[in-house]
């Protein structure tokens, strides 16, 4: 009985001790909240409420070192280096001159070993003759953030100046941003009511590891150089743009959205997107693609799709393209990818596009193809409807199903599968010389074959419609040659 009372009393002491600890902790937190930047028991609470506009360059002590307002017409580059700060370039109705706005509303807790200071420099790069501006910022460090908000805004007035906006536009300036986790925004999301809307910037190199990159609709539509890189953040170009010189996208595991992108035919669009997903409406230009297990969905591609990098091969990617106009497809390292292209058209001068795909597994579906096709896979199925004059399809265990809509053969048709069924649909007026073999290179007996309109034994090989162009089939499985049903 007495033992029970002792046990109960000890438990009460533990409960009281627990509440005392909680009360002490809460007291310390309250003291820290009312005494920012004071270290207590190795912890520190920090809180900023800061906003400053700069109309010229400053030094490390936040003191103006130039009496001349910024004039972007004389600036070749703007370099921004930051960690988690948000960077934006935009027109702004509340400024009458170009300015760089720095804002900080960060609040949180840090250990005594973390640097909670907030510092930045806006200065001309040494030796640049005041033509390169660097913006370096150090954001407060912490382990818990209640508000993690630091912003760097490059603000351009919305009203034209006396020189007709020459001092406000950025057409002579390249913007370079290097960030760790901050988001980067270029342009405005809505028209500016007091005057100009686009920012005039036509060259930018934007890099962030985990932050997102957004190019808003109101920018200069004619760009020169665009380089975008984000490891895991989203990339979103919401404007229809023409890029005259270079366009590169680099991503590891991002979501990428593009509107309409146009480049000259002699330039190459570089897409190194690895495991990312990319969606686009219309792209004009030839694409050099590096893709592993990502996803591609284009509506129209006016140009070629090339992925010839033997080092960075595809793994199990998904490629979905509605239409490729006046371009070729070269995917020699598709491996286990799934590929579906609804249409590949000829060029305006009659040159036919070529499709070359080499895979191991996956599945290949090609719709209407105007041009030669060479497809090879190990276990993947191949489905194709084509107007081309030459076809070569080879698979080991996959099935082949082809509708051949052309009335002529330029050189030859070749279909090969070791154990997969082969089904070919042709026009009734197609002239060809049919040869069907097994994988031992032996002519197969006609009793194991189906050729429409031949319901009895026929010769193998045989000439159809007095044709001399080779139509060669190699398979140990079912072989069926059918006629395309003519519409009434």
What does this structure look like?
Helix content is 7%, strand content 47%. With 488 residues, the chain is mostly beta strands. The mean pLDDT is 87.
Strand-helix topology:
Layout: H1 2-33, E1 39-40, E2 43-47, E3 50-54, E4 77-81, E5 86-92, E6 99-104, E7 107-111, E8 119-124, E9 132-138, E10 144-147, E11 150-157, E12 174-179, E13 184-186, E14 203-208, E15 213-215, E16 222-230, E17 235-237, E18 241-251, E19 255-262, E20 268-274, E21 277-284, E22 286-291, E23 295-302, E24 305-306, E25 318-325, E26 329-335, E27 338-344, E28 355-359, E29 363-369, E30 373-377, E31 381-386, E32 391-395, E33 400-404, E34 412-417, E35 422-426, E36 432-437, E37 449-451, E38 462-464, E39 470-475, E40 479-483
Parallel strand pairs: 4-9, 4-12, 5-11, 5-13, 12-14, 13-15, 14-16, 15-17, 16-18, 17-19, 18-19, 18-20, 19-21, 20-22, 21-23, 22-24, 23-25, 24-26, 25-27, 26-28, 27-29, 28-30, 29-31, 30-32, 31-33, 32-34, 33-35, 34-39, 35-40, 36-39, 37-40
Antiparallel strand pairs: 1-2, 2-7, 3-6, 6-11, 7-10, 8-9, 36-38
What is this entry, summarized?
With 488 residues, this protein is mainly beta.
Summarize model confidence as the mean pLDDT.
87
Tertiary shape: elongated
Summarize the amount of helix as a percent range. Answer: under 10%
Largest sheet: 36 strands, mixed
How far the N terminus sits from the C terminus, by CA atoms, comes to 103 Å
> From the helix content, strand content and strand pairing, which structural class follows?
mainly beta
- Tally of helical runs: 1
Number of strands: 40
Q: Which radius of gyration do the C-alpha atoms yield?
A: 33 Å
């Amino acid at each position: 009985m007495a033992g029970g009372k002792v046990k109960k009393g000890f438990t009460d002491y533990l409960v009281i001790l627990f509440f005392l600890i909680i009360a002490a902790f809460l007291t310390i937190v309250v003291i820290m909240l009312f005494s920012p930047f004071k270290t207590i028991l190795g912890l520190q609470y920090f809180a900023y409420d800061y906003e400053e506009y700069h109309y010229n360059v400053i030094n490390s002590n936040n003191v103006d070192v130039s009496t001349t307002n910024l004039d972007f017409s004389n600036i070749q580059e703007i370099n921004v280096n930051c960690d988690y700060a948000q960077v934006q370039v935009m027109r702004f109705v509340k400024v009458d001159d170009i300015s760089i706005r720095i804002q900080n509303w960060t609040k949180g807790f840090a250990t005594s070993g973390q640097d909670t200071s907030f510092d930045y420099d806006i200065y001309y790069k040494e030796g640049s003759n005041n033509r390169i501006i660097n913006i370096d910022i150090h954001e407060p460090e912490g382990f818990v953030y209640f508000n993690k908000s630091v912003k760097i805004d490059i603000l351009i007035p919305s009203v034209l100046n006396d020189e007709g906006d020459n001092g406000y536009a950025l057409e002579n300036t390249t913007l370079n941003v290097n960030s760790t986790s901050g988001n980067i925004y270029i342009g405005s999301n809505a028209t500016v009511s007091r005057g100009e809307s686009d920012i005039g910037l036509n060259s930018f190199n934007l890099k962030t590891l985990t932050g997102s990159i957004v190019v808003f609709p109101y920018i200069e539509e004619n760009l020169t150089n665009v380089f975008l890189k984000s490891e895991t953040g989203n990339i979103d170009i919401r404007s229809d743009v023409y890029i005259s010189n270079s366009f590169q996208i680099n991503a590891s595991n991002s979501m990428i959205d593009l509107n309409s992108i146009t480049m000259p035919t002699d330039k190459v669009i570089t897409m190194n997107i690895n495991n990312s997903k990319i969606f686009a409406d219309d792209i004009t230009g030839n694409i050099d693609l590096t893709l592993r297990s990502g996803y591609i969905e284009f509506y129209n591609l006016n140009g070629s799709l090339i992925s010839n990098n033997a080092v960075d091969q595809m793994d199990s990617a998904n490629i979905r393209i509605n239409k490729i106009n006046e371009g070729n497809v070269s995917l020699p390292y598709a491996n286990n990818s799934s590929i579906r292209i609804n249409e590949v058209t000829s060029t305006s001068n009659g040159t036919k596009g070529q499709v070359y795909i080499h895979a191991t597994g996956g599945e290949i579906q090609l719709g209407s193809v105007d041009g030669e096709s060479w497809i090879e896979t190990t276990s993947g199925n191949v489905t194709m409807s084509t107007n081309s004059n030459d076809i070569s399809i080879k698979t080991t265990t996959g099935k082949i199903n082809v509708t051949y809509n052309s009335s002529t053969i330029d050189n030859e048709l070749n279909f090969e599968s070791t154990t997969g069924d082969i089904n070919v649909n042709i026009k009734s007026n197609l002239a060809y010389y049919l040869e069907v073999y097994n994988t031992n290179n032996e002519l197969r007996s006609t009793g194991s074959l189906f050729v429409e309109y031949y319901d009895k034994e026929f010769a193998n090989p045989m000439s159809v419609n007095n044709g001399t162009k080779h139509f060669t089939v190699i398979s140990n499985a079912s072989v069926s040659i059918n006629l395309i049903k003519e519409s009434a």
